[in-house]
Design a protein that fits this description.
The complex is a heterodimer. Chain A is of the alpha+beta class. Chain A contains 6 helices and 10 strands; from the N terminus they run H-E-E-E-E-H-H-E-E-E-E-H-H-E-E-H. In chain A, the strands form 2 sheets. Chain A has a 5-stranded antiparallel β-sheet. In chain A, strands 3-4-5-6-7 form a 5-stranded antiparallel β-sheet. In chain A, strand 3 and strand 4 (74-80) form a beta hairpin. The two termini of chain A are 35 Å apart. In chain B, helix 1 crosses helix 2. In chain B, strands 1, 4, 5, 6, 7, 8, 9 and 10 form an 8-stranded antiparallel β-sheet that branches. The chains are: A alpha+beta, B alpha+beta. Chain A binds chain B through residues 101-105, 108, 110-111, 144, and chain B through 81, 84-86, 90, 92-93, 95-97, 100, 121, 135. Chain A: It holds the Pfam family Proteasome_A_N. Chain A: Its main location: cytoplasm. Chain A: Keywords: Acetylation, Cytoplasm, Nucleus, Phosphoprotein, Proteasome.
Chain lengths: 255, 216
Amino acid sequence: MSSIGTGYDLSASTFSPDGRVFQVEYAMKAVENSSTAIGIRCKDGVVFGVEKLVLSKLYEAGSNKRIFNIDRHVGMAVAGLLADARSLSEVAREEASNFRSNYGHDIPLKHLSDRVAMYVHAYTLYSAMRPFGCSFILGSHDEDDGPQLYMVDPSGISYGYWGCAIGKAKQAAKTEIEKLQMKEMTCRELVKEVAKIIYIVHDEVKDKTFELELSWVGEVTKGRHELVPKDIKEEAEKYAKESLEEEDDSDEDNM
Amino acid sequence: SVNGEWRSSKVSTGTTIIAVTYDGGVVIGSDSRASMGGEYVSSRVINKVVQVHDKIFCCMAGSLADAQAVTNAVIHQLSFHSMQMGEPPLVQSAASIMRSFCYNHRDELSAGFIVAGWDSKRGPQVFQVSLGGMVLEQEFTIAGSGSTYIYGYVDAKFKPGMTREECLTFTTNALSLAMDRDNVSGGVVHLAIVTEKEAEKQLIPGNKLPVIQSLE
């Protein structure tokens, strides 16, 4: 696999001779161990989908949510250490709230993303603290700037995207996302595709059951970030399951 | 008063300030008198219309020192905010920053403001930020000691969606009337006209002000 740090990986305040900060890279590994979360931006909004693995039958349905509301118009989907992610969601909420208090209007998503990314970056500078072990995707929609999507990773970088994936199946998910023409789709169409992608990348063998978490923000919700209503979610899951069966059938024909 | 008590009073901008939106822009105006104790005119030509950003202006009323301190702080914060956002600030943001100063330091300050300008999100806007930190958005607003004499005039004569010329006439008439009656307002009229394209400043000397013989 990768090189063992050999002493350069003990703290985030140390570079390795080849210019890497190993602690940050190890933090990114923590994200890769977590189940997948995706966010896609379309013509009139943003849709999030999270593959929430159910580790015990005793869990209450809907607990340990991985999609958070940061402000009325901003949603955040996370992957990695859930406790770290919850802490960052509070940071993001305070930033958004203080901005509104100081400047009188909703925080623009790019600015929120930059501010939280700066906070995450601060934890990559000191030996006394470990970096955050989570990545997250922020999405929002407003009348003037339209739909926006940003992703922040443990190194403290933030990028804007049309579609992105984080977690264990991010490569497979990215491949599926790239097949979509998201710029021409509406949220209603996209919801079904997001559900389908999560079902596709879910590994039946290694991971057992999972719960699909779906949320959206866009013209369809009048700019508010909300969980997708139950009936639309059921329809999307039905579409996802049927698409998978079709693909399985077509595989059998080839044999 | 006999003993010159004006000497120990603070410089105030007993003032008339006004801001009026019209179709496509906003006109902001003030008089130019700074007085002490209501007796001594310490300056007859100060400009109470301060530019806090390319397309946003502030009018000062009350204690001149307090007003200047606050507007300087707003200019500083607003320029930083605008650079962080990477785009010109909203008039709403300028008013909010102004408000937070006025509210958090309400016990030490004695100044009121009008914040007016143009932004790409909501076009021309006028906000009144009063003494204790209240913010009120209005189509037009007047403030300062001289404003009390012209409430009747502005209430009767204002109409929304005026042309630029109509708005200029309305504003200069209002200021003239107030400056004629209020002893602590006077001098020249300072104007700023802000539209999508530009922010233009004008000065109307005292002898060029409209003389209003009768009102119809």
